[in-house]
User: What shape does this take?
Amino acid sequence: MTGGINTRSYFYTVQPNNTKVGPAAILLAAVCSLLPQAAAEADPLFTAPPRVMRYISTDPRFNTQACFGVVLAERNGVPEKVYNLGHEDPRLCSAAQSSAPTPGFLEQAFTVADALLSRGSESRHRELTEDLHADNLADIVLPPVAVSMQQLESEQRFIVGVGLNYLDHREEVAAETHIASASAGLLVFPKVVEPTGAYSPVVAGTQIGTRPAEPVRLLDYEVELALVLLKDLDLKALPSSYEEFIQQVAFFAANDVSDREPIILDSENGYTRGKSHPTYLPLGPWMIHGRHLQPRAPNEGHTPLELVLRLQEAAQPSHPARTRILQSSSTDLMLFGPWHIVKLLSTRYRNGIRTCMRDANGEARYTHTADGLLPAGSIILTGTPGGTAIREPDTLEKLGLFLRGGLSIAGARRQMIEDTEAHLEETDYLEPGDRVETRVERLGRQRWTIVQPALVSPYGVNVPAACSVPAETSR
Assistant: This one.
């Protein structure tokens, strides 16, 4: 004993078999005892920023209900594991898969997701994790934002499309030469279609007004960044700043699928008719609140987002199966960011402009209510970069089209459509069997296939696309 302390027993412990363990071993044991906790902290269940999606739950408590969930794991932008937010708030699940949750539930889903992130995971959270299997994503992954046709027709919701927002796309369609709105800033149009999930097939559909019915031949793709309004947006009284605006939106990936024929025939007003076929708006797979993601664009935001579209083409007589990247860009290259787009919409409204275009059935459709309101739950598409299938003919080709079209612009446009359809194998237009991958950085990856139903049914009527022209059926 020295000073009342047994130095030997202080530095060594004696195991039951009388084996002495030195201080290094004691230190190692102490460190190892902390490893499980450290590993858990290094691999948290809930990670920032929360990625919120909608899906059909297989959890026994919510089986077959449409629920909001937080993505816990993904592979190459495809969600693999999700935690059902219905466990925190049962109102975030709905028995009606087709019903559109109110905007309040969109905001509530983000609030609950943020609360989970701040509190940290518990053992029950891991036990309640649901796996999403790759072979049935088309059946269980829903669009992150649901909008019904009834809501669109009653102006409870709007889907506002924006075009010509990337310089390279303006150039490939020669927008400045034949689209009047191009010089005024942006092309704006109503898109009147229920969104579909990120893995649901896109039905090529039927050409508008053809009798007998003919399948769509000029089917185009457009990768885009999109946003949903979490609060009503009054174009008469916008949020006071970008910082206030960004707290009222959430972002997700979109594809503005388009039948180009109505647009070629009427480059000013044919957009709603060409872009509103059923299934022409895949969204998701998930969304991120604006407080966690501010896409960088000129004079706003700070996170550049890459946009990529990859086409896996089915084998054709003219070529074997192949994969190509057709669109690749960044939000940095937008001409106008989301906040600037909203300000342009406000300016147009205050100048007495309310964009109107007719849909496939001849109904007048608008981009906001008559009193300048975009209700919460409405969607804004921010435009696509270059690389789409449509191309503007050069000057010599235009002359040839004009001559063969009977010396009229309308005839030349019809001739352009016929020529393109006769040489589809030389274009990038989509065909049944093609598989499209759409990716927006941080917002996940879509994968969907072009299908054509066995029975092609008549769709829509031949009417002028402009609302200023009486919508009498053309002969």
